[in-house]
């Protein structure tokens, strides 16, 4: 009798944890860097897409604007995506080439880490999102960089983007 109850209970808990709709996976996560008044931070955030909302446990807030301040990673989805951008509940880790003591990171409060959806074309004429080698481009000689801590620099050569620099702090 007891084993008959376990299967529905496990199924119910699995569905509650998974939520409804598509869930972000590591395959569509990208390393993003944001700058601020005192420095920059590097985090992993999903590419912006349509918001997913699960009922109850592990639900994403209803709107991007609600993702501000502290959060509890045990009660929040790994990532929440909206047309305006994407966020995850985690710790703000400074961008540094030096190793950071894990105890210092663990002592930090969890807050919503958000990355706004980039425009199709930035003000400097570069694509808003990073490109890949051999993707087509039209502005011969145009040099563009994406990221502010760890970054990629590409140049439009022969009608295609080519990686010409980048890296992370030593």
Main sheet summary:
3 strands, antiparallel
Q: Helix coverage percent of residues?
A: 10-25%
Strand order of the largest sheet: 3-4-5
Domain module tally: 2
Based on the structure, what is the oligomeric state of the protein chains? Answer: single chain
| Derived structural class | alpha+beta
Task: Give helix and strand order, one letter per element, not per position.
Answer: HEEEEHEEEE
What does this 3D model show about the protein?
This protein is an alpha+beta fold. The chain has 2 domains: 20-117, no CATH class; 119-170, no CATH class. It has 2 helices and 8 strands, in the order αββββαββββ. It has helices spanning 2-18, 102-107; strands spanning 29-35, 40-46, 80-82, 85-90, 111-116, 143-146, 151-157, 160-167. A hairpin with a 2-residue loop joins strand 3 and strand 4.
Sum up the structure in keywords.
3-stranded antiparallel beta sheet, alpha+beta, 8 strands, 170 residues, 2 domains
């Amino acid at each position: 009798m007891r084993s008959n109850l376990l299967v529905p209970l496990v199924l119910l808990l699995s569905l509650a944890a998974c939520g409804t709709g598509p869930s972000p996976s590591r395959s569509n996560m990208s390393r993003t860097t944001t700058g601020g008044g005192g420095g920059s931070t590097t985090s992993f955030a999903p590419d912006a897409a349509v918001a997913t909302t699960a009922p109850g446990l592990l639900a994403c807030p209803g709107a991007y604007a609600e993702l501000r301040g502290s959060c509890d990673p045990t009660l929040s989805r790994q990532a929440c995506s909206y047309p305006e951008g994407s966020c995850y509940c985690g710790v703000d880790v400074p961008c540094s080439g030096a190793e950071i003591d894990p105890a210092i990171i663990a002592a930090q409060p969890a807050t919503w880490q958000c990355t706004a959806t980039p425009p199709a074309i930035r003000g400097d004429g570069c694509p808003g999102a990073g490109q890949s080698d051999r993707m087509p481009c039209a502005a011969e000689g145009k040099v563009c960089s994406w990221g502010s801590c760890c970054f990629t620099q590409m140049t439009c050569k022969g009608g295609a983007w080519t990686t010409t620099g980048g890296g992370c702090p030593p």
